[in-house]
Design a protein that fits this description.
Elements (H helix, E strand, L loop, with lengths): L1 H30 L3 H31 L4
Length: 69
């Protein structure tokens, strides 16, 4: 039961955290009046870590699904 709960709640909570961080970046851009280019740069630079984590999860899933490289 505990393993099932952890298997479901971990991706949900991490997804929620990523959405919350996107909101924080958007709010930072809005409050600083960054403009369109500044907002894009904030999302690219500050969102790079989130993208790296998502890519790690996808690559790990692909390797596990195919039984290794």
């Amino acid at each position: 039961m505990r393993e099932t709960f952890e298997a479901w709640i971990t991706p949900i909570m991490i997804g929620g955290l990523i959405l919350f961080m996107c909101f924080i970046i958007w709010d930072l851009a809005r409050q600083s009046r960054a403009g369109r280019f500044g907002t894009i740069m904030l999302f690219v630079v500050l969102g790079a870590g989130m993208l790296g984590y998502i890519l790690k999860v996808v690559i790990t899933w692909l390797i596990e699904r195919n039984g290794g490289i």
